[in-house]
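Lesson 9: reading folded outputs for more than one chain in a single document. The general rule is that every protein is listed as its sequence immediately followed by its structure tokens, and records are never interleaved. Here is the first one.
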Amino acid sequence: MVRSGTELKLIFFPGAKATVAALVLLETLELVPRAAFTAVLPRMEDIKPIGEIREITVHHTGFPEAWLADDLAATANHLAEIQTLHSDPAGRNWADIGYHYAVDRMGRIWQLRDLRFQGAHVKNHNRQNVGIVVLGNFDIQQPPGAQVTALAALLNFMLTAYDNLKVHTHQQLADGPTSCPGTHLQTWMDMTFGGAARKRFS
């Protein structure tokens, strides 16, 4: 029998397999619901179903200044600002925030766009593709240990709970060169998940 707290966590991951191995990994994740940073709903007329999940792409926020805030309120405000940037008609005019999950500096996993819906995070490659953004600019800062530990746990859970997933970073999947997810996080991804990804740009 799945414990009630774990059942609530599974709601964050539609279609996930509740195997013993997946549930053990799920227990390690500290999950923050979407309602903790926004009450703004996506524009459903402009959103598409994600389909059967086949890929995960890791990003960084990559703003010019390093992101160093650790507290919940500052992180929530930061994510709300990203949602506005992504969805405002004066910004990118997307249906919602582009990513499905964010990993903050304290290792909390934030639910962003509902996983049932296609994201907006890798141009021409959003179908069946889960977008995970790690908060910070990892060309100019190192991700703290709690952040990469949580990212690894999230990726390992998803690789266990969904079939035949490929893990990429933005620069590995993009149609053109990009530094995302930053030099330091890319190096960590190469060392930790490099065998699961196909690199297309050096």
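And here is the second record, again sequence then tokens.
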Amino acid sequence: MKKKFAAGLTGAIIAGALAVSQLAPVVYAEDGETSLSVSETEAPETEAKEEETEKKVHAQLETTNTDEAQVTAIDVSGVVDSVMPSVVMVTEKGVQEVMDLFGRSEQYETQGAASGFIIAQNDDELLIATNNHVVENSTEVTVEFSVDAEDEEDLLASAKVKGTDPKTDLAVIAVDLNDVKEDVLKQLKIAVLGSSDNLKVGQSAITIGNTLGEGISVTSGIVSALDCEITVEDGSVFHEFQTDGAANQGQSGGMIVNAKGEVIGIFNAGYLSGDNVGYGIPISTAIPVLQDLINRETRDALDEHGYMGITVVAVSSEASEFYNIPEGAYIYEVTKDSAGDKAGLQKGDIITGFDGITIDSKETLLRQITYYAPGEKVDVTVMRQGSGGYEEQTVEVTLEEAPEGLKKSASEKPAEDSGDGLQPIPDPFGGFFGGNGDGDF
């Protein structure tokens, strides 16, 4: 449409030029490109001049000749060689819960492949960045390093989830240094984190990840758009930059580097309805979150974790937008004299943080509380409705032991829910929330 508009405008100018006896002579810019400008001439005095003017009006566009174009292939092998010792492949196993047609809960074991890269090392651990959605439902995480080893088994190590942030889709997993062979450890590198503050469309963007779970592969492309608003399947919205490299499953958590080998982004989404469209979390957005996550205590999931004595309903992004309330875990009920009641939690509060971790759903809260033992004190952030709208408050909860019926961990629950005596919870956001042990904390 713009081209058609421009052509119509040019025609109107030329027509106007004919009407007032103006012409547009050819002017050559210093850079060799051709441009047009309009200048005025005096009115014709004789018939001869009139004919001469008419000839001048029919000027032809002229262009300059350019040298024959030369195409140079871009070799990024040096960049890839320098960053490869930082890259890891991530394999995770988890449990997914689904509801059948009769409202019964069934659990299935899942397995996925993704990517990550080493961002730090402390006295005890290698710390690896990846995506939250890679590990959010995981029960077992394994990494494979991208260096040389005589025995490929030496490249494998188990990892623990150190911290997650659903709001930015970031996570840090930790590998115990004692689980890494010495000859492998000597080859590993910590990735060099760059800046995404001054990204430009057209600059190099090299994506390295575990494509389709088949091993590390490299895509060389460019930054094709900035500040894109991305909405994923669960309704979460992220602001990221776009690359034109091939986007495939398994690349999530992989690094996007510039021509210097500096990380400028973390790949986390591909546009599956199109070709060669991928998105990355800008590294300048990620660094403050990763800095917090790497300094958190590495915890093991507990079979008998702490309990707050509350029942929650998830606030989806759709409900949040429709009702203009914060996303999180909506407290539907607080058990009298429970840990939550003693701390001051109230029905209607929306939990948005647990010990500094963003809570965006019931599932996120469940995952976080499984790492905390009875007796631990935890800061819980809630949004509480007041006269001026929702206000943020933080309360300290001393976790207690769970009732006998809720002590089973998710991994110990039967594949098919036989019913635990809980009734469906009326959902304040329409419909019903299927009540089971997962709703009680």
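What the second record shows: Confidence is low (pLDDT under 50) at residues 1-44, 409-425, 429-438.
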